[in-house]
Amino acid sequence: MFNCWGMVNAYGAFMGLYNEHLLTRSTDLQLSLIGATECFLLLFPSVFAGRLLDARRHYYLGFTGFLLLFLGYFLLSFTGRQGFKDQGTYSLVWLTSGLMAGLGMTCFFTYSSHNVIQWFPRKRYIAAGITSAGAGAGGIVYPLAFKFLVSNRGFPTGVRILSSIVAGTTLIAFILGAPCADVPRRSVGPVFHASTWIDKRAWKSRPYVLYVVAVSLVYGGFYSLAFHVTEWAEIKGFGTEDLIAGGQGERPGNNGLRTFWFLTIMNGTSIIGRLASAVFATKWSNPIVVHTATCLIASLLAFFFWPFAPNNAAALVFVSIFGILGGSMLSLPASGVAYLIPDELQSHAGQWTGMMWSTVSVFALVGPLIAAELNRKFSMNAVGYWTGATLLVTTILFACSMYLKSQEDKTPTGSAVEQVKSEQQTRSSTDGGDVATIV
Question: Is 83 left (phi over 0), alpha (psi -120 to 50) or beta?
């Protein structure tokens, strides 16, 4: 989590440098596309990664993730030549940090969230919360490291040092990560069969479908705001952007709070939300309750604080609280699937979770791009309205999913559990018929 969502959460710091120094000719839409590509590629291949994890192909995923992440950020250091103003090449920045690093992130993302839940079935919400806190930690460390290294060593050298940090931490995860031996292993099956990767029973579960759509809107709305928080702070006059003068040190603007601190604070407080949501989800045995409440509060904050924050103090309160709520919203999806999936299908958890993330990826790609266009055509306030609207719809969908789940528990007819029992009965009768024929 530290190296996948941690780097995505840090993209606002990268985007600030690109916008102010390295890629000033690129539009807000183009710069948002880099971060959105990371989100999309981090999530979309999860349908394949989750299924491979069910088959215990974790070492293949881990090594692939290590290689792609390291190479992605190492090669990024060559895209800006000497790091002077407008020396960056947009297509190469997108190719390395967007495409290559994004593909590496998906390996470790599914790898971490899936394995931990299997190791701690009774405390799975707590375990998932602690694991997801790594995303918040990465969102603190990487913006600060990027800022310090690029300011003091220049863009090329600074990013190479950053890539070595990525390599070292991913290597630790690769060496120590392993699936739980108590969960049955499922062989992969024919590679080109859709049933190998997609479990149709999941899409017949109405609570699951509504939950997947709701999580999709969470990612489409939250990262739209997160990618623009440093620019918002500068436009509103809450902080100033540091300019990097050819890698020879800082060339600060006006005195005041630096805008990258707004992103760092948001990422830092997200750790509180990730851990607190895990505690409440465990206490109530229902992560969707926590999801519903946090989305509603975050929606109201985005509607009113983003456009109307009157001063620095209010802006800092906003990013702090929104970070806590965001950490809660982003840490619970895998736990939500574990709550919705029947006990009889727990060996399919990786597959169901992977299918969810692949669906979410489309919204994670499109959401920030819509926000960038709204910012261009209207104003920065429109980004907050977009986030607020998506989270409000999400609140309703979570509540509906929770209601349908409670109804299924009371009357399981037509649910995924009944489908499993029906399949088992069909197999038994078939086997019995075969035996009778032989006799």
Answer: left
Q: Which residues contact 237 (CB under 8 A, 6 or more apart)?
A: none
Which H/E stretch holds residue 243?
A: strand 243-244
Separation between Cα atoms, residue 230 and residue 215, nearest integer Å: 25
312-331 helix and 333-340 helix, angle to the nearest 10 degrees: 30
pTM over 0.90: no
Q: How many CB atoms lie within 10 A of CB 137?
A: 18
Query: How many other CB atoms are there within 10 angstroms of residue 209's CB atom?
Result: 17
Please name every residue paired with 250 in a beta bridge, in sequence order, or none if there are none.
244
C-beta neighbour count of 436 within 10 angstroms: 8
Taking only the tens place, the pLDDT of each residue in 39-68 is 888 888 777 776 676 666 677 777 888 889
**Residue 252 DSSP code:** -
Q: What is the DSSP string of 275-344?
A: HHHHHHHHHHT-HHHHHHHHHHHHHHHHHHHHHH--SHHHHHHHHHHHHHHHHHHHHSHHHHHHHHS-GG
Q: How many CA atoms lie within 13 A of 177 on its CB side?
A: 30
Residue 258 — φ and ψ, nearest 5°? -75, 140
Query: What pLDDT digit, counting tens, does each position of 356-400 carry?
Result: 888 888 888 888 889 989 988 998 899 999 999 999 999 999 999
386 exposed, middle or buried (CB, 10 Å; 0-12, 13-18, 19+)?
buried
Name the DSSP letter for residue 22: I
Residue 126 neighbours by CB under 8 Å, 6+ apart? 120, 278, 279, 282
Note the maximum CA span of the chain.
91
CB 5 within 8 A of CB 138: yes
